[in-house]
């Protein structure tokens, strides 16, 4: 029986995407002798505020949206750098397919997308390593789809003809309609459910050219997760806790209100219980004494007429008399809520080599020593791929130097690594030295700020604020809320 392939991101390039004119990142796994090795791959992105860290995580979110065949929506116009007509994303994946424990094939898959305000042009290429070491790998264009070639639907034309017939066939006309619909809805055509279904019906069972598309699409839907920083806002406001999860039968995110009980469909209760139980089992080892429990408060009828179960997330405390006491999670710290929200996916990334998990501002609310130890554990004995941004520098002392990327002040070369790091060097000290003293090359790691100028600006603005006059009636309204 064929096993599910192990998919990894190997390289990434973004151009004219938000505040990044051009930036390329090679992932740590791409530096190894065997890029297909199913071992942990951890990448941390560091740099000053506004330098492109979150931009890269946002690019991963757009990538996931495209590969899932979903609408990019109004975010599309926000992705393109000011003054530019289009943004470009290019990601290279490795695909390792196993059959009964033996390697079935190894491939590299390159997906490119050019995003404009109205259209999405895309192409997929496959690189099959040569069986003869002396020969170079062969790059083959599988599909190329542009909005200009409406009649051709996609290129190469030979591939279109072999799969769907001549230009006037009913299948090709159906493809044209699907392509126009995807362009109108800002969706990927090549990864749309409609195209993949038609491709599955048309392709031969052993068509190795198109098989990677289905593998990448499956990976995006079941094993690729992006946690954006804006999800933390729900936690900070005590509005809800977004619990990200992945099980053998399901995956995604559900939100549990922190300040009150909530009602969920009864058929989801088992999954929620399983997720919370798994989180609690590991959480009590990370933070001693913290045990989560899901409190069932009875059943009630939901708006759609189906039966629901009222639940509330709580922490279980052991009292001095040996009795247990339940405390609603809303009274816990932001750090515990943050760890709870991401822990299930961290567990999945630790155990599953095909999981790719990207987290913006991983360090938010988490004790720095705990953060460093968690990352060390994942790198040393984990299996999946973890990408994160952080401002806390302690992980620079616990991770390999290849696992750390820094943003630069050079807009057309936004991401870099510190080279010539020896085993005895402290990467954190080297980074701070470059920040304080400056870099010898054009791509500095920090845009210098002047402490005296900051203090002077604050004094000047402070005096202006004192001189701001508010009318008496306005002042009364403000004081009374």
UniProtKB/TrEMBL annotation:
> What InterPro entries does the record point to?
AAA_GajA/Old/RecF-like (IPR041685), P-loop_NTPase (IPR027417)
Which Pfam family, any one of them, does this sequence belong to?
Answer: AAA_15
SUPFAM superfamilies hit by this protein? P-loop containing nucleoside triphosphate hydrolases
Q: Where is the Endonuclease GajA/Old nuclease/RecF-like AAA domain?
A: 9-393
Q: Which Gene3D superfamilies match?
A: P-loop containing nucleotide triphosphate hydrolases
Which PANTHER family does the protein's record reference?
Answer: ATPASE AAA-TYPE CORE DOMAIN-CONTAINING PROTEIN (PTHR40396:SF1), ATPASE-LIKE PROTEIN (PTHR40396)
Name assigned to this protein: AAA family ATPase
């Amino acid at each position: 029986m064929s096993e599910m392939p192990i998919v990894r991101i190997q390289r990434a390039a973004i151009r004219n995407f938000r505040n990044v004119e051009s930036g390329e990142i090679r992932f740590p796994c791409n530096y190894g002798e065997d890029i297909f090795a199913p071992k942990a791959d951890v990448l941390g992105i560091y740099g000053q505020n506004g330098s492109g860290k979150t931009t890269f995580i946002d690019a991963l979110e757009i990538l996931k949206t495209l590969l899932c065949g979903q609408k990019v929506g109004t975010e599309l116009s926000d992705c393109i750098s000011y003054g530019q007509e289009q943004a470009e994303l290019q990601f290279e994946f490795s695909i390792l397919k196993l059959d009964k424990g033996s390697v079935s094939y190894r491939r590299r898959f390159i997906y490119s997308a050019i995003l404009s305000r109205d259209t999405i042009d895309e192409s997929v290429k496959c690189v099959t390593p040569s069986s003869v070491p002396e020969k170079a790998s062969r790059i083959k264009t599988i599909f190329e789809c542009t909005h200009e070639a409406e009649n051709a639907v996609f290129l190469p034309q030979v591939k279109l003809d072999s799969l769907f017939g001549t230009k006037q066939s009913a299948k090709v006309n159906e493809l044209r309609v699907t392509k126009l619909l995807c362009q109108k809805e800002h969706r990927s055509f090549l990864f749309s459910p409609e195209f993949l279904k038609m491709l599955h019906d048309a392709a031969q069972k052993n068509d190795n050219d198109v098989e990677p598309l289905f593998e990448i699409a499956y990976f995006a839907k079941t094993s690729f997760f992006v946690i954006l920083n804006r999800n933390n806002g729900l936690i900070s406001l005590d509005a809800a806790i977004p619990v990200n999860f992945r099980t053998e039968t399901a995956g995604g995110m559900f939100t549990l209100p922190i300040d009150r009980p909530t009602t969920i469909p009864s058929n989801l209760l088992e999954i929620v219980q399983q997720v919370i139980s798994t989180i609690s089992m590991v959480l009590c080892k990370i933070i001693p004494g913290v045990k989560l429990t899901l409190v069932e408060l009875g059943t009630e009828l939901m708006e759609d007429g189906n039966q629901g179960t009222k639940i509330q997330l709580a922490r279980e405390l052991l009292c001095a008399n040996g009795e247990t006491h339940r405390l609603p999670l809303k009274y816990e710290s932001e750090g515990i809520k943050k760890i709870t929200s991401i822990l299930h996916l961290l567990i999945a990334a630790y155990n599953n080599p095909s999981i790719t998990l990207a987290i913006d501002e991983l360090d938010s609310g988490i004790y720095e020593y705990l953060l460093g130890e968690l990352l060390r554990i994942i790198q040393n004995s984990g299996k999946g791929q973890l990408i994160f941004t952080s401002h806390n520098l302690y992980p620079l002392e616990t991770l390999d130097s290849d696992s750390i990327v820094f943003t630069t002040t050079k807009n057309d070369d936004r991401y870099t690594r510190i080279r010539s790091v020896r085993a005895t060097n402290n990467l954190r000290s080297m980074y701070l030295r470059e920040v304080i003293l400056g870099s010898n090359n054009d791509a500095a790691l920090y845009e210098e700020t002047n402490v005296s100028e900051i203090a002077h600006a604050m004094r000047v603005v402070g005096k202006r604020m004192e001189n701001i006059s508010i009318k008496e009636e306005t002042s009364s309204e403000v004081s009374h809320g």
